Amino acid sequence: MEMNSAGAGAGVARSIGRGHLSHLPQRPPVTLAFHDLTYSVRVGKSSKIILRGIHGEFRSGQLTAILGPSGAGKSTLLNVLAGYRVEGAGGHVYTNGEPRDLRQFRKLSRYIMQEDLLQPYITIREAMLIAADLKIGVGITAQAKLVVVEEILQLLMLSKAKDTTAEKLSGGEKKRLSVALELLNNPPIIFLDEPTTGLDEVASSMCVSLLKRVARGGRTVVCSVHTPSARLFAHFDHVYVVADGRCAYHGAAAGVVPFLHCLHLSCPTTHNPADFIIDVSSGEYGSHVNKMVAAIENGRSQKWRDYEVPDSSQELELEQLNSSGVETCKALKHGSTAWQQFRILLRRMMLQTVRNRRHLLLRMSLHVFLGLIIGLLFSDMGYDASKTVFNYNFFYVCLIAMMYMPMMPPLSTFPREVHLIKREYFNRWYGLKAYYAAHITCRTLATTVFSLIFLAFVYPITSQPMELPRILMYTAICVAVAWISESIGIAIASTLNVVNSVFLGPVLCVPLMLLAVYGYGMGDQPLPIIWEVMRSCSYLRYGMEGLVAAIYSERKEDLVCPEYADYCMYKSIVNFLRLMGMSGVSFWFDFGVLVVVLLLMNFLGYYLLRQRLSPNYAYRSIKIIGNYVKTKMIMSHQ
Ligand SMILES: Nc1ncnc2c1ncn2[C@@H]1O[C@H](COP(=O)(O)OP(=O)(O)OP(=O)(O)O)[C@@H](O)[C@H]1O
């Protein structure tokens, strides 16, 4: 079995070696160096040091592996170097010998995270073309983009699966697609967090071989790897071992065994050198970490760096790829304008929405089902003078349906989407404004269609007035409430995870629902100012007044008192409105307030999402205060 997989792996490596990336724009090589790098986090009252003044250098054209025992700080090092974690980091980072400008560096580097965050209902080919439109933009023709995409798919051996949607891809294919998407504008530095985790031996070998090939094109490729096999280990040009936040080895992969030998630690010939150095670093063979850190000077020593002379043919390839048409670093900005990004993202979101048939069907059935149930519960009550209060309740039930149904989907799906946006936004696929505008447009369209389906059932079944202006006004208020509720859902889900979002959303609705109807039925008697203020905080209140205004305002005729009823107390609409304290309601005022609330909620959602992706000083301060209060509360509780 081992033999077979080894053979397959070698075959894969050979075939990858034949791939080309000639159509990609050429970039200048970037060597990344770091001196005295530290990273600490606050844990309660104290701070925990994760990286302890380490040094190192990752060169262009080389594939670097960051190894180490679990919890040593590999991912943290990758996050800090990629600029993904900035707060709590110290030390100096240099690119090509110059101090790193983080803003500029983010344009140069791409970070492929451990999770395969892909759009599930989009095929590989579509995903690549969409990414090409976003990243390469209109600078090249559609035909040229196709060539670039085909070239990368071939290199990453994804051509056979190019018409398969991402949800159906194997683990290895998903990983390769993540890499392929980031290769599109040929970044000079690529960071990968554990690209082989979850892959079998052959898939891991294929993945690392292609990364080596990508590196050979003049890129700096750095990945953290969990216990690589001996064969996988041999692919790496450079190995950086982290042990308890310090550098325990920094040099050529082939130098690991001689390095350990110099420290009187002999790796048995049958042992995988990667396993051995990780075992030694984790203290399994005694306390040797200090010795290793001292020998390698916490990463400063270059002694083992060039232990083996690099292959000259590889050098040649590197030369060729970087010899002509090199674009400047500044060219690595967004490839498309905000308007183009909006259109491309909207197309992608529409595709996702339409292809998620099960979800669409579920939402549709739910709206039809609730439309029928609510309609039948309040059937024919629209003109019935003996049921005026029930009709009023129908308005309220309509609002609650229009609040919950659009709010729940973003609460459960958007937190995951935020992770995807994080990756794409961090890797500079698009601007957040374009994304948010496309997201709101796509969601709004779906919500409008579903709300109309719901209203198409309840309005006629409950015998509301069949006058066009009233129908339009009723629909406008319901749809506005649905949009606001959806925006609130998005704002909550922009900040919290699924569990907390799904808890907070419905809980938050309870006071909104209570405040919406508090004080109605007391006539024109004024409420205490505090209740007036609190009531005005619930957008549902404006929804309620808007619906009442839509159906009852300026209605001259009385409602019909059925024969079976002895007495109809609320036959006169004017009297009913007076009793409810709603005599002066104005549709346009309530609709106007709802529009303002809608705009505010959308701004809030955008602001929270932006802060989640790149928090500003004020937001960070609020978080620190929040954490401090939380810690205090926990401590006082103990
Ligand atoms: N925000 C944080 N708060 C507290 N501790 C943290 C935080 N981030 C990381 N750590 C700790 O820092 C150490 C290094 O974490 P890191 O994820 O970098 O390890 P790793 O080497 O990648 O581990 P693994 O191989 O298991 O993924 C761990 O002990 C982890 O618990």
UniProtKB/TrEMBL annotation:
Domain ABC transporter residue range list: 32-269
Protein's gene: LOC113523368
Top-level division of the source organism's lineage: Eukaryota
Keyword Transmembrane: yes
Cited PANTHER family: ABC TRANSPORTER G FAMILY MEMBER 28, FI05267P
Entry membrane topology: Multi-pass membrane protein
Keywords noted in UniProt: ATP-binding, Membrane, Nucleotide-binding, Transmembrane, Transmembrane helix, Transport
Protein name (Swiss-Prot/TrEMBL): LOW QUALITY PROTEIN: ATP-binding cassette sub-family G member 1-like
